[in-house]
Design goal:
The complex is a heterodimer. Chain A is mostly helical. Helices cover about 65% and strands about 0% of the residues of chain A. Chain A has one domain: Ferritin (Up-down Bundle), CATH 1.20.1260. Chain A has ten helices and no strands. The model of chain A has no long low-confidence stretch (mean pLDDT about 95). By secondary structure, chain B is α/β, with parallel strands linked by helices. Chain B folds into two domains: about 90 residues, 2-Layer Sandwich (GMP Synthetase, Chain A, domain 3), CATH 3.30.300; about 60 residues, no CATH class. Chain B is about 20% helix and about 25% strand. In chain B, the strands form three sheets. Chain B has a four-stranded mixed beta sheet. In chain B, a hairpin with a 7-residue loop joins strand 7 and strand 8. The longest helix of chain B has 14 residues. The termini of chain B are far apart. Classes of the chains: A mainly alpha, B alpha/beta. At the A-B interface, helix 2, helix 5 and helix 9 of A face loops of B.
């Protein structure tokens, strides 16, 4: 059994891991749709977006490993950390739910990542800026696709509308965490590594408003509940998704094909 | 032993790269796809360095392309070589050559239109969009429609032609 690695609490590394883990965990969740999506085209779309997200995660975890100074590579960071050392917001680890929840969450996250990548184009870390140059184009395409589906389902049948509204209510509980600023954000903003995530709220909300208007759906009221995945304190769903992701590397260290 | 001057080896490498096909788009060479950014000779160790920029972050063909490129260079007797992956500036479909676009069309894939800077205004659902039509690669009709935003690979979407009734793939502008 392969033992765990620790990543420490360097704020720059944490900032990168927050983004990398967001891509990694959402990529894993989208991959779960393979063979299960309601139509073949969406099966392929989910797998394609998962592939983009995992590719982005690989680049980000590699960079986090370099900055961390502990010699960790992308695979060690993806497979050998314990739950408390993952820093994705809780939203992306929630079970994939029904198709309405998946497209609502994808719209929320792709819109968020699009604005984040746009700001990271000017990162003081040239490697991160380079990753952003590619990823921003992918995030735009993901946002377009997810937004189209929110409109289609929200402005669809009574059943699709009911499910999309329910999905919005659930997703919105976990939205405030995305924009809560803390010391990690402050350090990143001061060093110009990247923006404080709180600064992304106005453009994010503007895009979400446009999507929901077109779908004929109301923006839910902000929730008082605060999830805490970004600080490493996750929901009960994180343990099982990590077990699934890590089992092979833990049981057969360094296994490859 | 390696034959040829530095200039001959570099020129030789560029010609060889015109014969290495993209594994997921086997109609167009990696050179015409615009993913070969530079070929240079490292004076220190005499190795050719081929600089590649992947098309998508998660493109699963990247590793195969690396291997294919190195195998082709070796087969041409151009001496020791290595591949370096370069992320910035990010690859854009605008880098696909005219010859590459022609080959795509002949292969049945509609080539991408201009990618621009990609910062399009947010408009959701096809009915609200005012995108330039994608011409059918078979009959050139502009009466086409998107069937799926994602196709058989990350770089393509699926379309159909309402004139000739044939489905086709579109290389996404990005």
């Amino acid at each position: 059994m392969q033992s765990s690695i620790e990543v420490g609490r360097d704020p720059a590394v944490q900032y990168l891991l927050r983004i990398g883990d967001t891509c990694l965990i959402l990529g894993q969740r989208l991959g779960e749709w393979s063979g299960h999506a309601p139509v073949l085209e969406e099966d392929i779309a989910m797998a394609n977006m998962a592939l983009d997200l995992v590719g982005q995660a690989r680049a980000l975890l590699t960079r986090a490993g370099q900055l961390g100074g502990r010699g960790h590579d992308e695979d060690q960071l993806a497979f050998l950390r314990d739950e408390r050392d993952y820093f994705n917001p809780t939203l992306v680890e929630l079970p994939r739910g029904d198709f309405a929840f998946t497209v609502v969450r994808n719209a929320v996250v792709a819109t968020f990542l699009k604005h984040l990548w746009e700001r990271l184009l000017n990162s003081s870390d040239s490697e991160l800026a380079g990753i952003a140059g590619k990823a921003v184009k992918e995030a735009r395409y993901h946002q377009q696709h997810a937004g189209d589906w929110v409109v289609r389902l929200g402005d669809g049948t009574a059943e699709s509308r009911r499910r999309t509204e329910a999905a919005l209510q659930t997703a919105w509980l976990y939205v405030p965490e995305l924009f809560d600023a803390d010391a990690v954000d402050a350090t990143a903003a001061a060093s110009r590594l990247g923006p404080s995530w709180s600064a992304l709220h106005p453009p994010w909300l503007q895009d979400m408003q446009a999507i929901l208007d077109e779908a004929g759906l109301a923006v839910p009221q902000p929730s008082a509940f605060r999830s805490t995945g970004k600080r490493g304190v996750h929901s009960e769903h994180m343990g099982s998704i990590l077990a699934q992701m890590q089992q092979l590397q833990r049981a057969f260290p360094g296994g490859a094909w | 032993m390696v034959n040829g001057s530095a200039a001959e080896r570099i020129e030789g490498a560029w010609s060889v790269l015109s014969t290495v096909l993209g594994p997921e788009v086997p109609a167009v060479s990696v050179r015409d796809l615009g993913i070969v950014r530079e070929v240079r000779l490292e004076q220190a160790d005499g190795e050719l360095e081929i600089v590649l920029t992947p098309t998508y972050s998660g493109c699963p063909a990247t590793e195969v392309i690396e291997q294919d490129v190195l195998a082709a260079i070796a087969a041409a007797g151009l001496g020791p070589a290595r591949v370096r992956l370069q992320r910035a500036p990010a690859w854009t479909s605008d880098w696909i050559s005219e010859a590459g676009r022609r080959s795509l069309r002949e292969y049945g894939i509609a080539p991408p239109g201009p990618a621009g800077d990609g910062a399009i205004p947010v408009r959701f659902m096809a009915r609200a969009r005012n995108a330039a039509p994608v011409a059918c690669p078979r009959c050139a009709s502009a009466e086409t429609e998107q069937l799926a935003a994602f196709g058989s690979t990350a770089c393509k979407a699926l379309y159909r032609c309402r004139a000739c009734r044939e489905p086709f793939e579109h290389f996404k502008p990005i």
